[in-house]
């Protein structure tokens, strides 16, 4: 049995958000992943982001594929509907769910095997359609549940736990997301909560296809010397271009920063992203430059993290399909059934 | 060649013959062919056209066969053709060979052909179509297009196809484009005049006004099914192009464009996504239906193969889905443009593990519409995939059927969906609890209630409260409930239609889908020869009690199918525990539609064997 409910006892002084929810209300069941797994840190970051954004938990739908990462939706947002679908196919299920009800927030959780190997096609097509979602890949470069095989994001030359080298070129999901037209592209590291939580918040507020590639070391199979996805390796090679500070709909406050080091982006819904630029030349609104920058730094052995690209006025699939503002799943007979008179006309046209 | 009209005593038939047009794909023949069939219908004579075409866009041979039958037979007759319109030199020899003795050959004799290219037992009618059109037109495109209309004109004089009806159809078709109407009528008259001046009109095959069409409509099953999806409340369609099902999704888009755009806002009360493949199509359908929208995909055999894993998920996680399978000849790529009923087994037991699915078998456009709409109610009621099993024969060919009907008081059956109010009132919610004993649990839709009713949908084993469980007792409990639910479906699918012979008979015949009109005609042929059959048309799976009792009450039952392995027969044996000896296979699977003569001949010869 791997279902373990968390005790519901709360500390009476636990902080509540304006909806009256505590952080505990955004949690799920107890994780069954290995102690120290990077994925648990991402789950915690999701819990915190949703709490801080004051999202009603039941208005979020969480979807996943198959694998260690895809198990995590049971460990957060226990009051949300979840869907653990089939391997590599979360994006299509999420797309369909989104078509049915545009009013919910869609959080897709996947892994590197799920998205870069078996599900590479669905990953690509969901992004190019501009499905309004947060798509997080918990990227550890390895198959955990089947005990340590390389995944398609493993770097060439990286060594397995048994010392075997990976000879295949890695798939760069961030590069693909940029190329495929995702309107929010970020990379982060599960060990860097300060960077990750605001990125998730910003992605949740982004009204388009938001993708976060989150390096998340596998303590059981990919945290050794020679791995390029270990905690130590990622810490040493992490090259952050920026740090999001917060996201808010309130007027910005910028006094405490040096001029030129802070950028504010106002999104469609009026929310503002403010971030500190660590590389003063980096422009988060330039898709082409982002691709070039990332390729250059990757060639230099760095792992570029931060918000890499954002389109503040994204389009999404519903806009392209001109779907009604009212969710399709709420439409009734009056809006859907043309009736017998229309059918009589159709019959007449077929004689 | 006119003299041969006298030399051979040609067939003499009124309102009962088969005309076949041999064309080149992409030569503009399709519209003239359709005009021919429609004109026969407007004369009140049942006409059933069939497109016989290769998997190709331009240049290869295609055929358009029209069964004309005042008696109302719309299935394939079988045998040769009575009148062949040979417009394709590539297939000349094969086409000439397909004519019934005493039949007629209509061809373009602009270039003379050697004597050995003809048969002596047919009537040959040469019309210099190329010469006529080359003289009348200078533009090569016009020469090509009007050649078809000139040919139709000549043909109309030969078989007494009412020219007023053709003129009327041209006026309707090109309404508002008077020049085009006039040009077409001119070409038509050119052909008529030439034939009347140079040939002995009419030939032995003629048409006369009749009343065998009535108020019936003339359309394709794919379009009817698409309309059924509109009336059934489908809002999400995810599909991947595949012959012969593409026109179903495209039809849905066309109907929605006319009838599902909100007048006030101009926004769409539907969403259609052409997915990247069939896996994504069914994935989107499942995601949408999980979230409470009525969703469907349309596909054919290869798509069904690709969807297997997702179908298993929808079965096990209990998510509604509607799948229109327009069957074609398999296995593998098979014959993409030929018809078969060969996906019965793969749909009935789709995906790994123990699964059983609900299938519907429409016989014609009327039922494609009816079952198309019904499928969405069944999917929501049973929370499982529903397969609507069309085939190329009914999907892509226009045929006469009863007009569509709709009761405006009809409401969607959304099935067991627990509401926020019910949750708030404290009603117990367990996603996989069998509260009503019919195996169907309650579900909640995402976003319903702030604190109650959320659950985790998964393809893994779970207990009644939707929690992950690998306990054998939980697994079995769930699998047995799924079986109960499947049993419940037996009374919800359309029941089989029985047609008793006037005299008691120990012989029965079971058939389904597009076989229907050929079976009806075969039955009449057999009756004429003194052989009586009781007929049972299966319309759904799981089978209702009436299927088992029909088999029980007959000594020998023929199972007529369009596949090699007798897939429905296997399903009957497997699910109803029928003695296999009792069920005799009648199988037609060469990719052509099953014909009345084939069924009648096969049954007649088997009855001999049975008796011995």
Automatic annotation (TrEMBL), chain A:
Keyword annotations of the record: Oxidoreductase
Alphabetized InterPro entries for the sequence: 2-oxoacid:Fd_oxidoreductase, THDP-binding, TPP_enzyme_TPP-bd
Which GO annotations describe the biological process of this protein?
cellular respiration; small molecule metabolic process
GO molecular function terms attached to this record: oxidoreductase activity, acting on the aldehyde or oxo group of donors, iron-sulfur protein as acceptor; thiamine pyrophosphate binding
One Pfam family of this chain: TPP_enzyme_C
Residue span(s) of domain Thiamine pyrophosphate enzyme TPP-binding: 66-214
| Listed PANTHER family | 2-OXOGLUTARATE OXIDOREDUCTASE SUBUNIT KORB-RELATED, BLR6744 PROTEIN
Protein name per UniProt: 2-oxoglutarate ferredoxin oxidoreductase subunit beta
TrEMBL record, chain B:
InterPro entries given for it? 2-oxoacid/accept_OxRdtase_asu, Pyruvate:ferred/Flavod_OxRd, Pyrv/ketoisovalerate_OxRed_cat, Pyrv_Fd/Flavodoxin_OxRdtase_N, Pyrv_flavodox_OxRed_cen, THDP-binding, Transketo_C/PFOR_II
- Where would I find the Pyruvate/ketoisovalerate oxidoreductase catalytic domain in this sequence? 26-192
The protein here is known as: Ferredoxin oxidoreductase
**Taxonomy, superkingdom:** Bacteria
Single Gene Ontology BP annotation: response to oxidative stress
UniProt xrefs under PANTHER family: BLR6743 PROTEIN (PTHR32154:SF29), PYRUVATE-FLAVODOXIN OXIDOREDUCTASE-RELATED (PTHR32154)
Name the Gene Ontology molecular function terms of this record: oxidoreductase activity, acting on the aldehyde or oxo group of donors
> Where's the Pyruvate flavodoxin/ferredoxin oxidoreductase pyrimidine binding domain?
228-396
Q: What is the lineage of its organism?
A: Bacteria, Pseudomonadati, Pseudomonadota, Alphaproteobacteria, Acetobacterales
Which CDD domains does the entry mention?
TPP_PYR_PFOR_IOR-alpha_like (cd07034)
User: Keywords on this record?
Assistant: Oxidoreductase
